[in-house]
Amino acid sequence: MLENDISYIIRGCAFNVYNALGPGLLESAYEAALKYEIDKAGLNVRSQVIMPMIYQDIKVDVGYRLDLIVKEKVIIELKSVEIISNVHHKQLITYLKLSGMRLGLLINFNTDNIAKSIYRKVFGMAY
Length: 127
What we know:
37% of the residues lie in helices and 32% in strands. With 127 residues, the protein is α+β, with helices and mostly antiparallel strands. It has a single domain, classed as Trna Endonuclease, Chain: A, domain 1 (3-Layer(aba) Sandwich), CATH 3.40.1350. The chain has a five-stranded mixed beta sheet. A hairpin with a 3-residue loop joins strand 2 (58-70) and strand 3. The longest helix is centred in the first third of the chain and has 19 residues, at 3-21. The two termini are 15 Å apart.
């Protein structure tokens, strides 16, 4: 399954979660619900995945955790904030760079329009 196919399913799962819960909850609530929906959709998903930082020739376990990884191909960074800032986008790009993955989704559930609050980030090879 390609990253584009996976992201399409994730978007549908995010819509299900948003329609059921609405805005205003903690990020951890959306993470649990989204993980459940993605599992239910039949995709392998892991939550709070520890990611080491590799700098030059050293590997440092500094406690970075990815919210969700789907099929070892797509990173999901979840937010429940009033405003998504540029640093949130850059954070996801950094996670993609450090992990070697190409596709990430930044999803903010604290919104009145979930369709406009899912951001797709690609690192490396073009699609």
